[in-house]
Amino acid sequence: MMLSVGIAISIFDERENRTIERYRISKVGIGGMFAVKIIVGMIAGCIQFAVSFAFSAFVLGVEWGDKIGWMLLLLMLDNLFAVLLAVLLGMRGRNKSISQDSVLLITMFSAYLGGSVTPVYLLENIPVLRWLVKISPLYWTNQSLISLYNDILDEKTLYSAIILVGLSAVMAILIALGEKKKHHVRIISKKEEEAQA
User: Fold this and answer.
1) Distances in Å between the alpha carbon of 52 and those of 24, 46, 48, 139?
2) What mean pLDDT is predicted for residues 124-146?
3) CB–CB of 175/88 below 8 Å?
4) For residue 188, what pLDDT is reported?
5) What global pTM score does this model have?
6) What distance lies between CA 78 and its chain's CA centroid?
7) In Å, what is the CA distance from 9 to each residue of 80, 85, 112, 137, 153?
8) Which of 29-43, 47-61, 96-110 is most confident?
9) Burial of residue 171, with CB atoms counted within 10 A of its CB: 0-12 exposed, 13-18 middle, 19 or more buried
10) 2 pLDDT tier (thresholds 50, 70, 90)
11) Over 80: is that where the pLDDT of 191 sits?
12) b/e map 64-103, b = 16+ CB within 10 Å
């Protein structure tokens, strides 16, 4: 999820430098720019997974078991969610600092609740956090990866995939609606300028 900081800042820089307007009037369009940012984020995530897998398997001697395909699928869905979140925050942030800090806060909060910082069993034993941890997509991914590592394909994998696909769809819809609204406002503004001239 830390890769998403760079994507959010990149999109904010496009907005700040007004180069995003060039995309809007070009044949590529704003959707093309978003697609490239998402593809680059996904490729970076794939490289990160490949390096982590190779290092853990060949240097540390980790045996990943038969469910490695399911594990990679969940990690790719998690990466897609993080990239779409970054695009959304890059488009919505008021300034670069807010965009960057929002991505970092969401990443840290989600990682903490997901068990990346503190073991999940400790979090689940704290009454206040017992239910709160379940809002983190990383919690479900973490639970599923533990089951898959033990060669158990269960409902946790299904829950994790549904949550990540659902959140990714929500992010994609919010991005599309936000851009459509901006495009509509820009058309109205141009018509008002032409009427005044």
Assistant:
1) 38, 10, 6, 20
2) 83
3) yes
4) 52
5) 0.78
6) 7
7) 17, 12, 23, 23, 37
8) 47-61
9) buried
10) low
11) no
12) eeebeebbbbbbebbbbbbbbbbbbbbbbbeeeeebbebb
